[in-house]
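Appendix B: complex inputs.
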Amino acid sequence: MALMKFAPEALKNLFMKPATKMYPNEEPVYPEGSRGHVKISIDDCISCGMCVRACPNGALKVDRNAGTWTIDRFDCIACGYCVLKCPKKCLFMEKGYQVPGPEKKEDTYTKSPEVLAAEEEKRRIAAMKAAEAKAAMEAKASEEKKG
Amino acid sequence: MGKRSVIPFGPQHPVLPEPIHIDLVVEDEKVVEAVPSIGFVHRGLESLAEKKDFNQLVYVAERTCGICSFQHGMGYCEAVEHIMGLEVPRRAKFLRTIWAELSRIHSHLLWLGLLADGFGFENLFYQCWRIREKILDLHELTAGGRLIFSVNKVGGVIKDIEGDKLDTILSTLDEVDDELRVIRSVFFEDRTVLSRLKGVGILSKEQINDLGAVGPFARASGVRVDMRMLGYAAYDELSFVPIVSNDGDCYARCFIRMMELFQSIKLIREAIGKIPAEKDLEVPVKGNPDGEYFMRLEQPRGEAFYYVKASGKPILDRMRIRTPTFANIPALCEMLKNTEIADVGLLVLTIDPCVSCTER
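Resulting structure:
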């Protein structure tokens, strides 16, 4: 009888476990590769700013001098384009979605003092070398003028 | 003849969450004219095309619609690929086809659930959405997102579906197939369902052709129009025949979408069987697009147009999207004439309206 087509299914539902999960009491299970949120391994970052230029939403900021990488989690659309563009592969997509919050705030990650000091040292040596090269060029130019 | 009065339908209405507004001119209980108006959720996505890089725009395009997001991303990418003359690797084409058909299943199940809710069959509504959940889990497993895939890029796809995941898709589709058969018999044979759907909102083939309707809505009236016949992505290598009905009523629209679910399952199985083993997923993209192209593709709701115009710069000159709901609204207004006011909610639902992608 056509009218009773759904009765077995309805009866089955009476004895089945609920199809839904009791979130947030029950932890959700995400599969591998789920695009939840962006994570950074900040000490590997070279502050090149490729991610900032790639982000379609302008959610990222990089400060090379301060050694920081900042993300506005509420602007991020978790598309993964920054992860694709990162030349050092120090950005990852992690499981677990952005949790809601009462205010819109940014997450800032700062490089460890050792990495910052090493970068500072590199910059100092590079600046010294550049100054030496410049002085040598100027000396050569003045000698040529005299000669 | 009774006195004429105007009853507003929407923009908020219990039958659908989409903000469409229709002024219904009624005489007694009969609708004599329907005047639509849209523009409640305009987001200006097309003008974003003039501000973003053409690679970034993939992520904007797929956010046009939450339900057919994959096909929006694919339509845009294929349009740019045609302009740049890129030949996408075969595996990427097959992956696109598999994802497109998976999202068609989820969209049609969503619609069937809403239809059941629209005529008051709550239990059927829950059944449809419970099955849909399995498809959404497949989306998350393969692409990383439940609704927004973000796997397309100009020149191919970003992610691969490995062998074990393809097996998971096949086994889940077997389960879904069994559960769909129960639902199909209810939609096709249950007396309560038939009494609300049979013979309601009939449109003839000529009316559909005159008003330019597309998608399952047009196929339900006997118009053999399906963009998958053009053979974009990997459809040219699959045995695809559009499903057409001649009844033109709400039941026929339900029939078309229900049968397309089984057809999509068949197409995915066939695509997984034929998917090439080579692992190339993308071709390198050099330079900027220069030229223009019209891309036509079949979304769950019907034919979508993607017009892309570029002039050798990273930022496009123009991107225009014509979504299927936009094409279906004139036919909807014709269909609403001479119907009972109690059927209006159901009739609006049968074109599967997606107003936020109509307004972009």
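Chain A has a mean pLDDT of 85.
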